[in-house]
């Protein structure tokens, strides 16, 4: 029997693909093989087979501890376009190098548009890390509120397998456990920050509602750090049961304070405008005073948010103007009752020279900003209402000069409050807690107080 020895194949021309740095081409009889220099596996090495299967083998070769992705991809993706170089892609490697009191850092991309290179994408030398990839996946799910079950979706598994065959896709229960581990680490960081504070904190309690009408209560710690900057940390976000009483909610808040060990650092408590349980702050205040004395004997402890104060001021103004408000509404109803009445009123408006694009409309009593807009429009047509009163006997509503002055005064007052409220909301658009932040609201409330006094 003739024995055919394996001999290195003579290369008629230079093998240009970088994958041949990891394979040796040998010939056996009439067949040509590519032998992996790492695991000695034989693959087809003929010129007709190409190099795609060799590149795929390198991606899966377990004998290779690391590989240069750029070398493998460069031959396939060479272009002469501007190169986008991606570096530093990943979440903060907390599990690799723990740094205390550091929150979760979002993914960061660093784009280098200036470099002109042959490769379209340069990843540099990359080592695959299963643990880091699993943690990054869990953080992605937490940040974007994806369902943990997505890791079991067929499409996701196919995508990940093609992207990184070495990644072992985990189950949803494993991802949930990883999310809880991340939460525990981040919670401990917040706990350490608050525990080491040299200042006191203000607890903001807010109410939230989901599209499914599920109500939540949030507890946010507001404090001044060592650099004299206002900081916020969400301590708890809890689901509310409609059957819970004020006592139960008070006990829930107190339990959260004890879990965070912040009762000794608490300066005040601010309730959201949506919060209807006024006794929670008082019950919490009584509980705290039994353990240690409060600053200023608790005079500054229970406070309402700025939007609540603005709403209370407007409600008082509306109460004093209630009879006049009804006259304004009745006058507008008369004008809008029929086309002839509306046409006659427009003629009176033209006669007295009313030049405005504002239109009369009835307000929504539940929205006080619409009350202001109704009064503002009515004041524009004040002279036209006088003519209507003098020339139309069917119009029985009459407003005196003193009443119109009252409307003008209250409308000016409401304008100040609405503008202050809008400024306050825009200032908290970066993650505020529904207007419960007293310090952030002071810049808009103080000018209001000066103007009103």
Task: Give a structural overview.
The strands form four sheets. The protein has a five-stranded mixed sheet with strand order 11-10-9-12-13. Strands 1-2-3-4 form a four-stranded antiparallel sheet, covered by helices on one side. The chain has a two-stranded antiparallel ribbon with strand order 5-8. The N and C termini lie far apart (114 Å). The longest helix is centred in the C-terminal third of the chain and has 27 residues, at 401-427. 18% of the residues are buried. The radius of gyration is 36 Å and the shape is elongated. With 453 residues, it is an alpha+beta fold. Helix 6 (246-260) crosses helix 7 and helix 10 crosses helix 12 (382-391). It has 14 helices and 13 strands. Strand 9 (201-209) and strand 10 (215-224) form a beta hairpin. The protein has helices at 52-60, 69-74, 130-144, 154-163, 172-195, 246-260, 279-291, 306-320, 322-335, 339-351, 368-380, 382-391, 401-427, 438-452; strands at 7-8, 23-28, 31-36, 42-44, 67-68, 85-87, 110-112, 125-126, 201-209, 215-224, 230-239, 266-271, 302-304. It has four domains: 7-64, no CATH class; 85-175, no CATH class; 197-304, Nucleotidyltransferase, domain 5; 310-452, no CATH class. The model is unreliable at 65-76, 78-123 and 424-440 (pLDDT under 50). Pfam families: zf-BED. Residues 14-69 form the BED-type domain. It comes from Artemisia annua (Sweet wormwood).
């Amino acid at each position: 029997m003739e024995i055919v020895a394996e001999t290195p194949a003579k290369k008629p021309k230079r093998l240009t693909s970088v994958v041949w740095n990891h394979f040796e081409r040998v010939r056996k009889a009439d067949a040509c093989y590519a032998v992996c220099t790492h695991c000695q596996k034989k693959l087809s090495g003929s010129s007709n087979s190409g190099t795609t299967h060799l590149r795929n083998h390198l991606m899966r070769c377990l004998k290779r501890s690391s590989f240069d992705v750029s070398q493998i991809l460069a031959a396939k993706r060479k272009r002469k376009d501007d190169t986008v170089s991606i570096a530093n892609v990943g979440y903060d490697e907390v599990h690799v190098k723990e740094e205390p009191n550091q929150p979760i850092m979002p993914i960061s991309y660093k784009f280098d548009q200036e470099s002109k290179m042959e490769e379209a994408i340069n990843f540099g030398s990359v080592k695959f890390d299963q643990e880091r990839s699993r943690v990054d996946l869990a953080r992605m799910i937490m940040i974007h509120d994806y369902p943990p079950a997505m890791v079991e979706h067929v499409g996701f598994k196919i995508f990940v397998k093609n992207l990184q065959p070495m990644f072992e896709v985990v189950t949803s229960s494993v991802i949930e456990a990883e999310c809880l581990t991340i939460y525990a680490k981040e919670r401990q960081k917040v706990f350490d920050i608050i525990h080491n504070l040299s200042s006191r904190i203000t607890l903001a309690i807010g109410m939230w509602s989901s599209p499914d009408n599920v109500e939540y209560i949030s507890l946010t710690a507001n404090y001044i750090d060592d650099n004299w900057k206002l900081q916020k940390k969400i301590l708890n976000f809890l689901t509310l049961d409609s059957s819970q009483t004020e006592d139960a909610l008070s006990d829930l808040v107190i339990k959260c304070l004890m879990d965070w060990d912040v009762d000794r650092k608490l300066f005040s408590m601010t309730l959201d405008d949506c919060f209807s349980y006024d006794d929670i702050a008082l019950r919490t205040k009584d509980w705290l005073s039994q353990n240690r004395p409060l600053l200023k004997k608790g005079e500054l402890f229970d406070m309402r948010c700025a939007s609540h104060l603005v709403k209370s001021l407007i409600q008082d103004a509306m109460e004093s103007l209630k009879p006049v408000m009804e006259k304004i509404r009745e006058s507008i109803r008369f004008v809008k009752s029929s086309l002839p009445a509306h046409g006659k009123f427009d003629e009176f408006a033209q006669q007295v020279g009313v030049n405005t694009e504002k239109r009369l409309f009835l307000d929504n009593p539940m929205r006080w900003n619409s009350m202001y807009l109704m009064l503002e429009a009515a004041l524009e047509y004040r002279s036209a209402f006088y003519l209507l009163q003098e020339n139309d006997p069917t119009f029985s509503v009459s407003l005196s000069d003193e009443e119109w002055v009252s409307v003008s005064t209250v409308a000016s007052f409401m304008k100040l409050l609405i503008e202050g409220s809008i400024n306050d909301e825009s200032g908290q658009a970066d993650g505020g807690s529904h207007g419960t932040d007293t310090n952030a609201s002071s810049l808009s409330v103080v000018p209001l107080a000066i103007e009103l006094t």
